[in-house]
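#onboarding

Welcome to the new folks! Below is a worked example of what a typical request in this channel looks like: someone posts a single protein sequence, and someone else replies with the predicted structure as tokens. Don't worry about understanding the tokens yet, we'll cover that in week two.

Example request:
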Amino acid sequence: MKMSCLAIRFLVVLAMIAAFAACAATPERTSTGEYIDDSVLTTKIKAKLAADDFLKSFQISVESHKGIVQLSGFVDSQNTIDKAGKIAREVKGVISVKNDLLVK
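Example response:
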């Protein structure tokens, strides 16, 4: 009886360690917290772009990963590309912006 309680405790501790290790971020995987942070960052940038009267008419795609933001899509001028990049850089939490917008 005493031996089975000890074995059960050992298995519970082992399961808890495995669960915590599975939630940790690795270079290949993103943790849940990092994924949520990127989602919030993307949403903030999309909201700022949509709120700008000049930029809201363009289809600008926004993706982020670990604070690095990528803008893509087609716009009508280099001025628009610069303005979208500036807005994205101003959002708190952005580490860098990869501006892949193209003039059509």
